[in-house]
Design brief:
It is a single chain. Helices cover 18% and strands 41% of the residues. With 355 residues, the chain is α+β, with helices and mostly antiparallel strands. The protein folds into three domains: 48 residues; 246 residues, Phospholipase A1 (Outer membrane phospholipase (ompla), Chain C, Beta Barrel), CATH 2.40.230.10; 40 residues, no CATH class.
């Protein structure tokens, strides 16, 4: 009886052990299959993301840079530049004692030009009224024998009304007539008054033709005797200016016209060289900025043996948003107002702001 009982216990233990081992094997097998599936999924994800690059951190926004650039763009007008090397291939005009301490052909030329909005939507229109100012200087900084004089200065204050028209003929295929400008302009070199005494004879005619020699004032017992008077006083006076702006991509063309308003008759042939208008072509692409200015495009060409105008070609390579390397070439009449009827051929290298 004991033997039968032990045999039954043995059989039951064997059956339970076999069931336990089968259950354990089943659990291990399921775990293995699950692990294998996860490995396959992970492998597929790795392959599908083989060319995936995690996003880089967004660059920090320099709000002050954007603000400064926007502000400079708004104020930029005819260009602010500095040319420490400005060489003239032609002799520099000198109206007094040209054989004594002549001007040097290398000088420092610089220009400061800006415009500031005064009234927006003036008179309930879309236009803006600007106050503009441009000053150009020719500085004989290397001329030590003459104590480095400021050879010539041009002053040009303006009041400009800019109206956006945004006229796109043919659906904009040939560009956009973006703006019209109506302004009032004054141009002079600041020379006049006591510097420009012109003595007259008893018949009322000037003793010397412009340009004369330096003024000599002698005082005899309280009475002033002015002799050898005369200087080259040049002013284009006050005049209205009308401009039309056309744009297409990075190309912009501005054509200006003005009816001549005589102001100073000391240079009656000024209009023969200044004409009634000019044009400016401006092209920007990447870091490159090209400029071409044509002077005296509206004039009586049939009256002259040769063209009395000029062109000014400029190129800027932008280094950063605020400054660029600048080169300029001028050829023609009137590099400065003082030289309105003098031909010159000049080139300069320097820097330009807000390229």
């Amino acid at each position: 009886m004991k033997s039968i009982l032990l045999f039954m216990i043995f059989v039951i233990c064997q059956l339970e052990g076999k069931k336990f081992s089968q259950d354990n094997f089943k659990v291990d097998y399921n775990y293995y299959l699950c692990k294998q599936d996860l490995h396959i999924i992970k492998t597929q994800n790795d392959l599908s993301n083989a060319w995936y690059l995690p996003p880089q951190k967004a660059p920090k926004e320099h709000s002050w840079v954007d603000f400064a650039k926007k502000y400079l763009n708004m104020m930029d007008y005819l260009g602010t530049y500095f040319l420490p090397f400005y060489h003239s291939f032609t002799p520099i005009f000198q109206w007094y004692h040209p054989n004594i301490n002549p001007y040097q052909r290398n000088e420092f030329k610089f220009q400061i030009s800006f415009r500031v909005p005064v009234f927006r939507h003036i008179l309930w229109t879309k236009g803006t009224l600007y106050l503009a100012y441009t000053q150009t200087d020719w500085f004989q900084i290397y001329n030590n024998p003459q104590s480095a004089p400021m050879r010539m200065i041009n002053f040009m204050p303006e009041l400009i009304y800019v109206y956006p028209i945004n006229f796109k003929p043919f659906g904009g295929k040939i560009g956009n007539f973006s703006e019209i400008w109506i302004g009032w302009q004054h141009i002079s070199n600041g020379v006049g008054g006591a510097q420009c005494y012109q003595p007259f004879n008893k018949e009322g005619n000037p003793e010397n033709q412009f340009p004369g020699e330096p003024v000599i004032v002698k005082d005899y017992n309280g009475q002033k005797d002015v002799r050898w008077g005369g200087c080259r006083s040049v002013s284009a006076g006050q005049r209205p200016v009308f401009r039309l702006v056309w744009e297409k991509g990075g190309l912009k063309i501005m054509v200006a016209y003005w009816p001549y308003v005589p102001y100073d008759q000391s240079n009656p042939n000024l209009i023969d060289y200044m004409g009634y208008g000019n044009a400016k072509v401006d092209y920007r692409r990447g870091r490159h900025h090209f400029e071409l200015q044509l002077y005296d495009i509206f004039t009586q060409y049939w009256r002259y043996d040769r063209w009395h105008g000029a062109f000014r070609l400029g190129y800027t390579y932008r280094i950063n948003p605020f400054v660029g390397i600048y080169a300029q070439w001028f050829n023609g009449y009137g590099d400065g107002l003082y030289e309105y009827d003098v031909f010159s051929n000049r080139i300069g290298v320097g820097i330009r702001l807000n390229p």
